Amino acid sequence: MAAFSYQHYPFLLDSMFLQPNNDTTPTPTTNKNMSGFWEEYGSTNPSCFPQFYPPQPLLNGTPLDMKDHEGSFVDHSSQVAALSDNGACVTRKQSTDSSTVVDNKLESGEQVTQKVTPASKKRRSKDGSSLNSAQSKDPRVVKNKKQKKSNMAEMEGGEKKSKAEKKVPEEPPKGYIHVRREKISERMKILQRLVPGCDKVTGKALMLDEIINYVQSLQNQVEFLSMKLASFNPLFYDFGMDMDAFQARPERLSNLSSSPLPSLQQCSPIQPTAFADANTTAATAATATSSAAAAAAFATANTYPPIDNSALLLLQGERLDGFTQDSGSLLWNVEEQRQKLRNPTGFSNNLCSFH
Amino acid sequence: MSPQRLSLNPRSLKSRFTKGFLRSLRKIHKERPTSTSPREIFQRYRKVKTAADKSLASAVGSGRAWSRAMLCKCKNQGKRRPVLVRRINNNRAMKRSELTEKKSGDDDEEVGFDQASGLRKLVPGGQAMDLCRLLEEAAHYIKCLNTQVQVMRCIADCYTT
């Protein structure tokens, strides 16, 4: 760890060594000492210099060279620390002044290397400091630009790669899932409108619970009603017998009524089933009055208020709107039937008056 | 129940269902007109229930999956060998459900497996649907059930009073 702690010394030494050549501010005494030490050091260890200052690899600026250079550099710095304790002391004293000089001097390098990671910054500053004053600034700048370009290219390439990696797996499933979720939520909204009490509930699971309960209740109601219908034995028998008798009539009536007016022909196909429905109510009892009672039961079953004859007349007037209300049309049918039973000959005239 | 705007249009679902249901009711009650024993009543109840389902499904037509499934069910119920048919059907249904469960597993996770499977059991033919289709069919089924209940209640109330 001593090597790493002293790693900045050569760098500082170098920067101080460069100062007199650039004619900068720091005091000449310490610089002379340092330069003297540096020269001595260079003379004592000449074999280290080709390693330490390789001019060609630096210009090329390949990362492998950088690493090698760094390794030699570290070793060298440790050697420096081991060799000269007093030199280290001097550099420590001068560290404050020299650091400013280094900053000034390395501006060109730093401008380039601002966008790069701090590790590479350190490396480059070391490289820059390791270049002696004998070497001009221009190759360094060129080198830095080259490095910058390569670094930027690497960065961009990395970004592009990451974007591509993100985009490729995300898109197809995203669209599929998105469409599916939209569909499901649409259907849930439709169901929400259909099921009463489902508006208050939030959350799909709770809504589905509500829907399930509602469907179950409806199915139970169907079962209950079919039970009820199954228990009415004799009435149904009568009804079944009477329905055959009644089913013949609407055809005859439609034949009668379809002749006078073209507007009747629009409504004539509707009549058979309407009559069938009305006749089922009429079939429960033998007389027409009881059929009216059955129709009233129909109306009340639909929770409509019982309507008297004046209201019936109004409904007859509204009939052209297209059988808007169930009970209204049913009552209209019953009224028709009543009139038919009273005076069968005038029925077609009445129909014409309705239209 | 809220009053619904339904016409007496013979092509409407309500009138078609009413027509078919009344016809089948008449048929049922023609077979054994006077029987008051509880067993007879129960048998008649089953028949009425089947008739209601069948007439609803036939009124809807074969455009919907649930109505098709219901018609198929009603057909198989009326046959003399219900056990054999049912077994075959169960096998088919099982195979289908196995196939579809794999497909619809993701959707069920979103909503909740219990709810989805609960709704599957209720909607006829729901075992072989994915969630999207199931919800669509359920919406239509609820509409039709509402109509059925309305009509049946009308008929029942008509004859009790």
Automatic annotation (TrEMBL), chain A:
Residues 92-102 have a biased composition (Polar residues). One of its GO terms (cellular component) is nucleus. It is found in: Nucleus. InterPro entries: bHLH_dom, bHLH_ZIP_TF, HLH_DNA-bd_sf. PROSITE patterns: BHLH. SUPFAM superfamilies: HLH, helix-loop-helix DNA-binding domain (SSF47459). Residues 87-174 are annotated as: Disordered. Residues 168-218 form the BHLH domain. Keywords: Nucleus, Transcription, Transcription regulation. Residues 157-173 have a biased composition (Basic and acidic residues). One of its GO terms (molecular function) is DNA-binding transcription factor activity. This is BHLH domain-containing protein.
UniProtKB/TrEMBL annotation, chain B:
Residues 12-76 form the IBH1-like N-terminal domain. Keywords: Transcription, Transcription regulation. The keyword Transcription regulation applies. InterPro entries: IBH1-like (IPR044660), IBH1_N (IPR059002). GO terms for biological process: regulation of DNA-templated transcription. It holds the Pfam family IBH1_N. The keyword Transcription applies. This is IBH1-like N-terminal domain-containing protein. It comes from Turnera subulata.
